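Hey L., structure's done. Input below.
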Amino acid sequence: MVKDLIFCLQEAALHFIFNKSSTPKDVSECYINPPCGCTNPGQNIQCEDCVYLEACLSSFKR
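Output:
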């Protein structure tokens, strides 16, 4: 439960820091130099915990 609360706070902070005008327009832009230091998104296990990637990819509607 605490982990979920922390995740929600991180998401809210990312929303305020990276407002809608600076969000990527294409999904591929989420993978270019993410701030979490993930070098190969989708291949490295460290990328699974990258909040930026999760927030960026979830902002796109399918």
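The two ends are 29 Å apart (CA to CA). The CA atoms of residues 20 and 59 lie 10 Å apart.

-- N.
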